[in-house]
Specification:
The protein is an alpha/beta fold. The protein has helices at residues 39-49, 65-75, 143-158, 168-174, 177-181, 192-199, 204-212, 253-266, 271-285, 298-304; strands spanning 2-6, 10-16, 31-37, 53-61, 83-86, 92-98, 104-109, 131-135, 162-165, 187-191, 219-222, 228-231, 236-239. It has a single domain (2-7, 38-91, 115-304), classed as UDP-N-acetylmuramoyl-L-alanine:D-glutamate ligase.
Length: 308
């Protein structure tokens, strides 16, 4: 399959701490790392690792973070011909505090990612594509929103399936227009908190009903250690989690889930099977450090995904 992925490329500055410092306090880090990240970049790297052809539309700066952000994309053979360079802004970065048990808190700087120039999008880029994957961070605002809306319109004109992946920061930055921007996407993936923030509903059923008002009929809710849920007009199913004992860092787990889900759907698997494979992908990534500390392989999913 051939995927066109739109969104952010960043570096993650990771600090592993026992507790977050309070105002005026300092806390020692057990270790600190610089890792490649960004939701769209991590989805793209995982899709390529799963054996698919992937092109990534994103924007990076020319400073020292650039190569660190791109290292895995290059290794996996992701097509970077749609990558833009920004001479004025640095490559996007995220400060990640990883707490015991793998939970994390983040501070992000969108920088170059938010300035993906819409003039650089050519509809013909989708002529040889099977599906489009959009990170909601590309719709958070700035020129990247215009680029992404043009791409979504071109995908709709060509009848291409669109997978959209939410992010809490993207929802807060985008505001009220995000639901309208996502109107009619084929698959919307999010965690429970993102569903609540996007729709203003106080329950999963209420949130899904709100999505339906915008023509979004296939919703996938990531529930962490509880697994995930697939909701369509025909079914509502809770998919059991893939159990792992050694969770160290949840960074990138949701992005690996999105990649595995999109790949499975485009390979012709039903949505429940796709969610089972995606649960495995997210769980495996959480046993490694960094968003791209482990990229999911086809054999991982074949060996570990339950048959039903």
């Amino acid at each position: 399959m051939r995927f066109f992925v739109i969104g952010d490329v960043s570096v993650d500055l990771m600090y592993f701490v026992d507790a977050m410092p309070g105002p005026g306090e300092e806390t020692p880090a057990q270790r600190a790392l610089i890792q490649p990240g960004g939701a769209a970049a991590t989805v793209a790297a995982n899709l390529a690792s799963l054996g698919h052809k992937v092109a990534l539309a994103a924007r990076v700066g020319t400073g020292p973070f650039r190569e660190a952000a791109l290292v895995n994309l290059r290794k996996q053979g992701v097509d970077l011909s749609h990558l833009q360079e920004d001479d004025e802004r640095p490559t996007s970065s995220v400060l990640v505090f990883v707490l015991s048990g793998g939970e994390r808190s983040m501070v992000s700087s969108a920088s170059a990612s938010r300035h993906l120039d819409a003039a650089g999008f050519k509809a013909r880029a989708l002529d040889q594509v099977d599906a489009v994957v959009v990170s909601a961070y590309a719709l958070a605002g700035g020129p990247s929103r215009e680029y992404t809306l043009k791409a979504l319109a071109a995908a709709q004109k060509r009848g291409l399936p669109v997978f959209a992946d939410l992010g809490t920061g993207a929802i807060r930055s985008a505001g009220e227009h995000l639901l309208e921007d996502l109107r009619g996407v084929d698959y919307l993936l999010m965690n429970h908190r993102e569903l609540v923030e996007l729709t203003g509903a106080d329950s999963i059923s209420g949130g899904v009903a709100r999505l339906g008002e915008y023509g979004i009929e296939r919703a996938v809710i990531k529930l962490g250690e509880l697994g995930s849920m697939v909701v369509t007009p025909e079914t509502e199913a809770l998919i059991e989690p893939h159990e792992v004992d050694d969770v160290v860092d949840s960074t990138g787990a949701g992005d690996a889930y999105t990649a595995a889900f999109a790949a499975a759907v485009m390979e012709g698997r039903d949505l429940l099977e796709a969610a089972r494979r995606a649960n495995v992908a997210g769980a495996l990534v959480a046993t490694h450090v960094g968003a791209q500390g482990y990229l999911v392989r086809p054999e991982d999913l074949e060996a570990r995904t339950p048959s039903k």
